[in-house]
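Budget justification aside, the reviewers requested a transparent look at the raw inputs and outputs of the sequence design task funded under Objective 1. We therefore reproduce one unedited record. The lines immediately below are the structure tokens for a 754-residue chain.
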């Protein structure tokens, strides 16, 4: 064999520039950059050194042959021509990887099969002895890349991908590959900082990948020093003496590096389940005396190195994978920015994120940004010098923001509610509520306008809510069109529903405005960021509205009209309490004394609990969902109601057809559309409401009343119903001040027998 070889070094997309610098530094000659790869020439010593020392490569491929190919036969004969006996024994094992397509090969499995057939046929002995296939730990791993009619046949010297260092046997839910972590550290300037004696800390360290890779760089430790099996281990062209020499040199360098005064390397992780896995990984890497990991939240992060030491803060915050997650992560990025500004002055910081818009919300400018790929996800590395001149104190206004500011100023100058003495229902004077204590934060001008609007709404509605004993109410509902969301207060929690922006709106502008609003909410409403729950509300189909969004299972107790109710702000799109139906529930409570009450499509049966509170003779609540009926049962129990309150699981239409009971008061608030698996057919409120009301009226006792409402904005009640029943629309009587601006939130009717 030649003393000089062509090598291909593969790497994750985006690392090519860094890899070519590293490879040239390790001895690669005539280096050229390709997509996800670097190509060059080297001797065997350099090839071994690249395997041992490359922190960025995935694989080191030694090219055995290049040949043109027009079809599968050219492929077979091109591979067959190689003297495979120079590379492996006839009864050894091999694995073949094939990439590319063309020249009649459109299936990589078929291409790999042709390569394998050629090698096996070449090595088959007269006695039938031949190589076997082992995809996990073969004696020889062969790679063939097909590129524009040329086949490049290579021997994989690395074996398993070089990013698998061997120390990370336990990992979190979204692990960062070791070579990508090393690349981020190098781009962030960690080799320079480490050489100057700087510290390294990760406030969201997960299982410690940044910490281990950073410590190995600082200690001059070859990343693959402890690997036992290589792609060349049983290759017949392997030169053991040369490899042993290089491995011994690397071992000596690591020993020298490890005996230096350990750098200050610390990690903090909020999830207690990841602390021990992180410590186990650090111990396997042999770096326990350099790296320490503690449990800690980002909001309290504070590096405390020895002797006022400065260094690098590095982290990979969550990106947000599900719809709406990005918005709820805003506060995490804000907290990170606050801790950098307050606790890390003079440090450098590197934030690796797949959500760069969130990175902009940290309140501190990056001086450099680099593009990377984390798998198929495009990401940005934000490099920051944590100095006051980099802090963001305001943002330039767009023309749209200036117009919104003028409109807001006109609104703010309007006279507020007269400052007359207010009294509660017992006749006692109500003391004016103190103005919210607003935490001063860095808001954009658009965010400040939004905060002003929220504070004014809170001032007006808060007085009404206190006077009426209302614990939960809507404080904002797309009042400013460019900030399209609904904001509800649930005692001391804030529930935010972002309405999906129309397709005509630039998604980046919509996202920026959403972040402006979320930044303003905690200080405008005087709540802690941890008590703001964010969801995105879109046009729903089928049962999607009722599908579980999360699985926290956390219920919060709220009160309304002397009734205690349970809400869940996190797990579902709706919370278990429709705030716009509050006046209807209060009407039912007021009129329910001594009556048999029926609640159809009862959801969590809040109206039934109000009826029971009002002295109903009995209540019956019907819904298809076992989950919501269990919730209803808890609502009854919370108020001490159990007897005479029936909960029925079933399809409402079928239940009405089968029922023979009579009721004095019926409440129906159906979904707009339902295609539940538990019911036959599909329910459409516009199409089916006549049949539904006829069935329900058949169960109404003489002198009884039926209340019907729904939230379908295009709904039209059939005219012929008024020929059979006395029908009165009462929509305007079922809206409280918090929904006065949104009169179309629902429509309601009172129906009685003629």
């Amino acid at each position: 064999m030649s003393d000089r070889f062509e090598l291909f070094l593969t790497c994750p997309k985006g690392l090519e520039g860094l890899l070519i610098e590293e490879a040239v530094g390790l001895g690669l000659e005539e280096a050229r950059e390709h997509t996800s790869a670097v190509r060059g020439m080297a001797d065997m010593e350099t090839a071994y050194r690249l395997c041992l020392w490359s922190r960025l490569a995935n694989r080191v491929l030694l090219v055995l042959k290049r040949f043109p190919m027009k079809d599968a036969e050219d492929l077979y004969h091109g591979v067959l021509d190689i003297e495979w006996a120079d590379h492996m024994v006839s009864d050894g094992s091999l694995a073949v990887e094939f990439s590319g397509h063309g020249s009649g090969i459109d299936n990589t499995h078929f291409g790999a099969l042709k390569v394998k057939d050629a090698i096996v046929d070449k090595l088959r002995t007269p006695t039938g002895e031949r190589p076997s296939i082992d995809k996990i730990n073969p004696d020889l791993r062969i790679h063939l890349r097909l590129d524009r009619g040329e086949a490049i046949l290579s021997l994989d010297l690395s074996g398993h991908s070089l990013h698998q260092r061997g120390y990370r046997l336990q990992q979190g839910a979204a692990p960062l590959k070791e070579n990508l972590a090393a690349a981020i550290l190098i781009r962030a300037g960690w080799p320079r900082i480490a050489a100057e004696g700087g510290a390294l800390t990760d406030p969201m360290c997960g299982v410690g990948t940044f910490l281990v890779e950073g410590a190995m760089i600082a200690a001059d430790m070859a990343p693959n020093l402890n690997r036992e099996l290589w792609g060349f281990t049983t290759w017949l062209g392997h030169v053991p003496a040369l490899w042993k020499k290089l491995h011994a040199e690397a071992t000596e360098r690591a020993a020298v590096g490890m005996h230096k005064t350990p750098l200050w390397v610390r990690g903090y992780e909020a999830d207690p389940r990841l602390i021990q896995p992180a410590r186990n990984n650090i111990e396997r890497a042999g770096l326990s005396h350099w790296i320490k990991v503690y449990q800690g939240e980002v909001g309290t992060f504070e590096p405390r190195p020895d002797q006022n030491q400065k260094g690098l803060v590095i982290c990979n915050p969550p990106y947000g994978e599900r719809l709406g997650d990005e918005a709820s992560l805003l506060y995490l990025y804000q907290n990170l920015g606050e801790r950098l500004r307050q606790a890390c002055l003079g440090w450098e910081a590197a934030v690796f994120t797949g959500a760069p818009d969130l990175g902009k919300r940290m309140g501190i400018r990056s001086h450099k940004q680099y593009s990377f790929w984390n798998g198929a996800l495009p990401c940005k590395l934000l490099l920051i010098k944590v100095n006051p001149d980099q802090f963001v104190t305001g943002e330039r206004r767009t023309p749209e923001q200036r117009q919104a500011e003028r409109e807001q100023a006109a609104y703010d100058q309007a006279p507020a509610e007269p400052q007359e003495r207010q009294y509660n229902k017992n006749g006692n004077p109500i003391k004016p509520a103190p103005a919210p204590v607003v935490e001063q934060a860095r808001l954009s001008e658009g965010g400040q306008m939004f905060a002003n609007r929220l504070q004014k709404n809170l001032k007006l509605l808060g007085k009404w809510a206190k006077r009426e004993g209302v614990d939960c109410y809507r404080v904002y509902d797309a009042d400013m069109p460019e900030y399209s969301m609904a904001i509800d207060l649930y005692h001391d929690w804030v529930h935010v529903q972002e309405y999906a922006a129309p397709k005509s709106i630039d998604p980046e502008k919509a996202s920026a405005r959403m972040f402006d609003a979320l930044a303003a909410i905690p200080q405008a409403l005087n709540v802690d960021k941890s008590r703001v729950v964010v969801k995105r509300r879109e046009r729903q189909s089928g049962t999607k509205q009722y599908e579980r969004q999360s699985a926290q299972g956390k219920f919060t107790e709220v009160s309304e009209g002397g009734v205690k109710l349970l809400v869940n702000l996190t797990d579902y799109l709706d919370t278990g309490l429709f705030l716009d139906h509050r006046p209807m529930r209060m009407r039912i409570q007021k009129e329910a004394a001594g009556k048999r009450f029926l609640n159809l499509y009862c959801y969590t049966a809040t109206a039934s609990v109000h009826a029971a509170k009002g002295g109903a003779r009995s209540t019956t609540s019907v819904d298809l969902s076992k989950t919501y009926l269990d919730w209803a049962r808890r609502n009854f129990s919370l108020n001490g109601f159990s007897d005479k309150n029936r909960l029925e699981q079933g399809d409402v239409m079928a239940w009405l057809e089968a029922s023979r009971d009579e009721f004095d008061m019926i409440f129906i608030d159906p979904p707009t559309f339902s295609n539940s698996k538990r019911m036959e057919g599909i329910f459409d409120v516009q199409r089916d409401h006549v049949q539904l009301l006829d069935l329900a009226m058949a169960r109404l006792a003489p002198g009884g009343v039926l209340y019907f409402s729904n939230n379908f904005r295009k709904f039209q009640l059939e005219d012929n119903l008024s020929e059979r029943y006395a029908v009165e629309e009462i929509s305007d009587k079922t809206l409280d001040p918090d929904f006065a601006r949104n009169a179309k939130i629902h429509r309601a009717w009172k129906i009685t027998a003629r």
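The two ends are 103 Å apart (CA to CA). The first strand starts at residue 5 and ends at 10. Computational costs for records of this kind are itemized in the attached budget.
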